[in-house]
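Readers outside the structure-tokenisation community will struggle with the description of the input data as it stands. I therefore recommend that a typical entry be quoted early in the introduction. An entry of this sort, consisting of the sequence and the corresponding backbone structure tokens, reads as follows:
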Amino acid sequence: MIDAMASDATPVERRRARDGKLYTKAEFEKYYGDEAFWNEAEQEDAPPAAAESDPANADPGASQPGAPAAAGAESVAAPDASGALRPGPLEPGVADAAGPAAALAAPAADPEQRRRRALDEIRRNNGLEASDPEPAAAPAAPNDAALAAALTVAPDALQLAVTLPPWQESVFLRTTLPRQQAEFVASGHVFNFATNPRGAMNLAYELEQYLPLPASAFVRFDLGNHLTGSQPLAVVAEKVHRLRDSNRPTYVRIDFFCYMPDGDVWRYHPCSMQPHVMRWGCTLFNAESAYSDGVGAALHTRPPRREASSGAPQPGDPLVIREDMDAMCMYDIQQSSWKRVYQKLLELGDEDQELDWSNGEDFPWWVWLANVGWMRDVSNDGITGIRLRVEGSFRCVIVYSLREIYTISSDCYGRPLVHPFPQRYDP
């Protein structure tokens, strides 16, 4: 009896965890699974790294950025000083209070509260002070003034893509992606993390409604290094809104986009596509839109020469040249078939009419005309306009190039027929 009382009076050693609070060895081992963190932790008499509070009186909603994350909780990717995505706790209040046991017993917040907490934590981790008054409103960009200055171009100026700061400073990496991931986590969607590229691609289609998302939200391996052999700033699953997926007819195309430190963007579809590198300053996507919404959303939205210039288009200026076509992804070209173009002709009905297709709002016709072989020869030195025509029972596409005007219609087998037949291109 006396021995038992003496044993109870023996002080229990406690050490300080990452949240600045003290826990016993048993609590450390129960939470972390081994003694490694216990051995590294500060002893009780060591000066506290942060203001210590009584675990019994801890505010369960207070944020503990340094606390170990609760079991089962995943991390939200947010860019650090260099622009790379780094983890931050999803539910700041879950891991506080009385250590691991209390974290597991804490009640789950409602989805909206979880989303706002996650977003607030991302801002604290990255020094972003903008508020989030409404769930649908995007936070203020940290570099609005610099971005506006970078996008200012003389009305009649022509430049190869709008000059923007590096991707590290983009609204897309610093604000859009963290917000998307916070909303994904708050949704409570149940899934199994991908452990290989094919599984990651299939999972990206399953999560289509939440895209764009950083791959770190649903993979458990270094996908960026696997795809590029280096370390991208971010690997993002994105929808290519203007392309259908031939293998999944109900979906638009979904690919992984690797944002590289030098400004290039490497695009991958591990199951079916060779990597496609889009160089910094290329004309394949709208730079301003990509800076805020990602390259996938900005790809093939306007003719390439319109992406190269912020000035008003001038009559006779080419909308696309062969150099632009050579830079396009072969998969995109193959998916933009004459069958889809002829379907657009049928949608016009039977009334005689002409429709100007030049601005590309209805269809990315320049991707279709980039087909290799004689079809690409229609473009010769550049294309200045394109129209759809219905005249009686005759339906055709009229292509205005710098050397010739071509008419493309369907033959009796449904194949494209060009008149006059384009000569072999000789620059």
Confidence is low (pLDDT under 50) at residues 1-7, 46-108, 129-163.
